[in-house]
Amino acid sequence: MQQNMPQSKKSDPDMFSNAFLEVKSHPLPNIRYGIFARTHIQPATTILEEAPLCRARKSEFSKDLAYEALSEGKKIIFNRLQGQCPCGNEETCKMPSVIKIWCTNSFGRSKSANDGSNIFYIASHFNHSCVPSAVWDITSEGHIQVVADKEIKAGEEITISYIDTVGSARKRRDFLAEAWGFMCRCEACEARLTITPKSLRKWPKSDAEETMDSHIEGLPTLEELIEIESRETALDALVDYVKVFHHHLTSQVETFLSQGKSPKKLREAALLAVVWEVENLLREAFPGFNKAVLEVHLSRITELHLWVLRFVQDPAFAVDWYFRNIEMVLL
Length: 331
Hints:
This protein is of the alpha+beta class and 331 residues long. It folds into two domains: 21-210, Beta Complex (Beta-clip-like), CATH 2.170.270; 222-330, no CATH class. It is 43% helix and 11% strand. Strand 8 (134-138) and strand 9 (144-148) form a beta hairpin. The two termini are 24 Å apart.
């Protein structure tokens, strides 16, 4: 997602095109790239279906893990995308570039559930409009499908909406500025229009399915599918181990309290042991993971151990808080 993000001019990567659209440099100086119609496009035409370049769960660990699993060639493609820190202070920001790219370009795994995100390389080049010329959805296979929402002339820029556009122009602009760092200049925002549910067009999905181009961009190879499945299985197994630790430590808490033992002993013995065990499991489960990146995530788990000491007088709460947050770090 490239909208209004100032960039130093670099040589263009190989630009994508299909029968309907092409990615190319944007004519406006403050927008790097855009997607433009190559031909006259009728409403309800499926103009792009693309498989994810990268898919992850909600945590930064999962995003780093997905990136590390990419081939060197696909890492180069991923790194071509624009990344911007949500804090808006690029000079002091310490967020890694991989996570900046995720923050700027990710689409949800579905429009209805917050269960992770995908990076689609081609679709990331669509710019935003609150009255877009195309709409997008995520298919049951996890592909993004982009469909013309109105008649689009050859040479026109094709836009999508990054947000639910219902509401006032100020509300939309504030949300876009906070999430993506740009002031929306679309016709609806410039005219200060309030968008209502009734004013939104609904594209006829059945018609779109009939006109669908059979070619899907970015399909993974068999090797890549096996790697994705292996990574997901390893992550699920790791979380299952953590849940076993959670259950075991909860039982220990009950035993400590029933015997009148000091919570301090629980803190020093059990919680620190979990940190070491999770660290070992992470290293064993993902041996090819970039060591420096892995250490960043391990340090977060260690920090949880330090934070949980604040709750040590309520050990049952401390254990629940601790493991909930470990799962958040991993998933």
